[in-house]
TrEMBL record:
GO MF annotation: an example: kinase activity
Transmembrane spans: 15-34, 185-207
Origin organism lineage: Bacteria, Pseudomonadati, Bacteroidota, Cytophagia, Cytophagales
Pfam families the record matches: HATPase_c, HisKA_3, PilJ
Protein's recorded name: histidine kinase
PANTHER family cross-referenced by the UniProt entry: NITRATE/NITRITE SENSOR PROTEIN NARX-RELATED (PTHR24421), NITRATE_NITRITE SENSOR PROTEIN NARQ (PTHR24421:SF10)
Domain Histidine kinase as annotated: residue spans: 277-476
InterPro entries documented for this protein: HATPase_C_sf, HATPase_dom, His_kinase_dom, NarX-like_N, Sensor_HK_TwoCompSys, Sig_transdc_His_kin_sub3_dim/P
Domain of life of the organism encoding this protein: Bacteria
Length: 476
């Protein structure tokens, strides 16, 4: 069955191609004939115009000859020589069957026209010779008068013969047009016959085959719809199972994420408590002992040392004790500044800027109201302070900045913390992995984790040689 269908399809295709080729050939032939006939008609019109102009030129030359022989003044500005030359060249071109046009030469084949031009040639030669005599200034007046009489005698015959030539041109043109019409009728009838045969031998079998194929496709479509319905039900059940599994996985992921947050929060809270305890130990323990040691050393300043070297060593020892006390106080402050719990975040950030500027030699400004304490929870206050402390340390160590600015403002129920520097900056893409997660670099992971624990938003804006800006937004 399949081989039979292929054979029928191949046979129909061949018939169809042959029919199309025949129709195309007939159409192209008709177009070619029409184009050729139009060109011939254009050429015929050109020849008729030239032949008609020959009659007009002969009459005009005759008029000029009469005026010249009779020495009659006239207003005709035409040159007798140029008109005579044009008349002669046009006649020769017509007689030689080669009439020049813009795109070549007009040629024709007609025994009747050849006979007419051959019969006209003696009359033309006689008139042309007499025109030349009339135009020759060396010829006597009597000879010119005789030549004029001959011209007047031959001109009616010339005009009659030229009329016959023009009528013959028109007749032959009309015959070519009738031939084209007959050929067009033949081509149209052949095209109709080819189309009728194409419909009978090609389209009718194609229609029958199409009907059979449509019937088979309808039966297959019905069976396919039934199968699709069953498959749809199975897919629906599968989707429900997938949704249940996805929901379980999401709940598991959210639970794990919550556990990680709680663990991280507990870890950070434990770190802060340990920082606080260690800061108290430094301040109340080692700090007090170092202070006592300093007091005892200062009392010994009044003692006179016999050796100058021992005196100098003692002064160095006092200075060293003072430096140790200052370093211990700085470490205690960094671990847990008391000003944070006593006066709030603004005051602590201002003090942090002043101490860091004094130690680093970098100009650090704080933009905020240090006298007004923003009311917020203790974890939020500590978290924002640690974020600012981490970002400030990063700017001091890595940015090569000349100026750093920390800004703290409250916008309704939102706290906005901004740390900006004018340092070398960096590409944000170098700070993120392929998944868009911040890499553990320069303390950014610590800042990101603290921001997430505060349910806040973090934004980093940085360009190479254009500085860096870190913005943290936390809702109260």
């Amino acid at each position: 069955m399949e081989r039979l269908d292929k054979s029928v399809a191949s046979s129909l295709t061949r018939f169809y191609i042959v029919a199309l080729c025949v129709v195309a050939m007939l159409t192209i032939s008709g177009l070619f004939l029409i184009r050729r006939t139009i060109n011939n008609l254009n050429h015929d019109s050109r020849m008729v115009n030239v032949a008609g102009r020959q009659r007009m030129l002969s009459q005009r030359l005759t008029k000029l000859a009469i005026l010249n022989v009779g020495q009659i003044k006239h207003s005709d500005s035409a040159q007798f020589d140029s008109l005579l030359t044009i008349w002669k060249e046009s006649h020769e071109n017509l007689a030689n069957k080669k009439l020049p046009v813009e795109n070549g030469l007009v040629t024709w084949k007609s025994a009747a026209l050849d006979s007419m031009f051959l019969d006209l040639m003696p009359v033309f030669d006689s008139i042309y010779t007499n025109f030349s005599l009339v135009n020759d200034s060396k010829v006597a007046a009597s000879a010119k008068a005789e030549a004029l009489n001959l011209i007047l005698d031959k001109e009616p015959l010339f005009l009659a013969k030229m009329d016959k030539i023009v009528f013959q041109f028109d007749k032959e043109s009309f015959q070519r047009l009738e031939n084209l019409e007959r050929i067009e009728w033949i081509l149209d009838i052949m095209t109709i016959l080819v189309l009728f045969a194409e419909g009978l031998l090609i389209f009718r079998p194609v229609v029958n085959t199409t009907r059979r194929v449509v019937r088979m496709l309808t039966e297959s479509e019905n069976a396919l719809q039934l199968s699709n319905q069953k498959l749809k039900e199975a897919n629906h059940q599968l989707l429900e199972a997938q949704n249940d599994l996805l929901r379980v996985e999401e709940e598991k992921y959210e639970l794990q994420l919550a556990e990680d947050r709680i663990r991280a929060s507990a870890l950070i809270e434990g770190q802060e408590e340990e920082r606080k305890r260690f800061a108290l130990e430094l301040h109340d323990g080692i700090g007090q002992m170092l202070t006592g040691l300093k007091l005892h050393a200062e009392k010994l300043k009044s003692v006179q040392f016999h050796d100058q070297k021992n005196q100098k060593r003692f002064e160095q020892l006092v200075t060293l004790i003072q430096d140790i006390i200052q370093t211990t106080r700085q470490i205690s402050f960094n671990l847990m500044p008391s000003v944070l719990s006593d006066f709030g975040l603004s005051a602590a950030l201002r003090l942090l800027c002043e101490q860091t500027a004094e130690l680093s030699g970098i100009k650090i400004e704080f933009d905020g109201d240090a006298q007004k304490r923003v009311e917020m929870g203790r974890p939020t206050e500590i978290g924002l302070y640690r974020i600012a402390q981490e970002a400030l340390n990063n700017a001091v160590k890595h940015a090569n900045a000349d100026k750093i600015k920390i800004k703290l403002e409250q916008n309704k129920n939102r706290i906005i913390l901004e740390i900006a520097d004018d340092g070398k900056g960096f590409l944000i893409s170098n700070l993120k992995s392929e998944d868009g997660i911040f890499l553990t670099r320069n303390g950014m992971e610590n800042i990101r984790t603290r921001t997430q624990l505060l349910n806040g938003e973090m934004e980093i804006v940085s360009e190479v040689d254009s500085g860096t800006q870190l913005i943290v937004r936390v809702d109260l």
